[in-house]
Amino acid sequence: MLRGSKVGLRARHEEDIPILRAELYNDVVNASRAEGGPWRPITPGSKDPRLVVDDQAQGSVPFSVVELEGGTLVGTATLWGIDNHNRVAHIGLGLLPSSRGQGYGSDVVAVLCHYGFVVRGLHRLQIETLADNAPMLRSAERNGFVREGVLRSSAWVMGEFLDEVLLGLLAQDWKPGSKA
Ligand SMILES: CC(C)(COP(=O)(O)OP(=O)(O)OC[C@H]1O[C@@H](n2cnc3c(N)ncnc32)[C@H](O)[C@@H]1OP(=O)(O)O)[C@@H](O)C(=O)NCCC(=O)NCCS
C-alpha cells in the first residue's frame, strides 16, 4: 500500500465494488462530471472496467483509497494514460460523497505524485478537470500543479458545455511533502 498522511492507496478489493458502484458511479451528476462521457448504469456482477481492475492493462493503474486509520474505503484514484516513451501520465480521483471536504483529495494527489514520479519514474503528470471544480483545482495546486490552459467548452455535462482546466506538474518542480 502507498501511504499519505491521511489516506492509503491499495489494490481494488471485491468488497469495494458494490460501494463504489452505489455511491460513485450510480450518481448520474457525479459520474457525468467526472468521467468525460455519458453516464450509463453498471450492471451488478458485470466486469465494468470502471470497477473491476484488469491487472494486465499497462496503460492505467487504478487504486482504491482507504483511510489510514481504520481502513475504511473512501474512494478511487487512478494513474492513467501512462506513456512510457514521453514519461507522461494523467491522474484522476473520486471520493465518496461522505468523504469529501476533509483534506483527503489533496493527500490522494500527493500519493499519486509519489507513485508517478518516484515509483514509475515519470517526468510529467497532468490533470484535466472542470473549471468549476474548486476542490479539485485546489487539491492539484496545493501539490504544485500549475494551470497551463483552458479547454473552452470541451465537456458536455448534463445539458451544457463546460470549460476544462489543464494542469501540469513536472518532476523537477515537485516538492514531496510540501503542500502550498
Ligand atoms: C475533487 C475531490 C477529489 C477533492 O477532494 P476533497 O477531499 O473533497 O478536497 P479537500 O478536502 O482535500 O480540499 C481541497 C481544497 O479545496 C478547498 N475546497 C473544498 N471545497 C471547496 C469549494 N467548494 N470551493 C472552494 N474551495 C474548496 C478546501 O478548502 C481545500 O483547500 P485548503 O487545503 O487550502 O483548505 C472530491 O471533492 C471529489 O471526489 N469530488 C467528486 C469527484 C471529482 O470531482 N473528481 C475529480 C474529477 S477531475
From TrEMBL:
Annotated GO CC locations? cytoplasm
On whether Transferase is a keyword of this UniProt record, the answer is yes
Domain N-acetyltransferase, first and last residues per copy: 7-163
Alphabetically ordered keywords of this record: Transferase
Pfam families to which the protein is assigned, alphabetical: Acetyltransf_3
What is a GO molecular function of this protein?
Answer: protein-N-terminal-alanine acetyltransferase activity
Q: Does the keyword Transferase apply?
A: yes
User: What PANTHER family has UniProt attached to this entry?
Assistant: RIBOSOMAL-PROTEIN-SERINE ACETYLTRANSFERASE
User: What is this protein called in UniProt?
Assistant: GCN5 family acetyltransferase
Organism for this UniProt entry = Streptomyces griseoruber
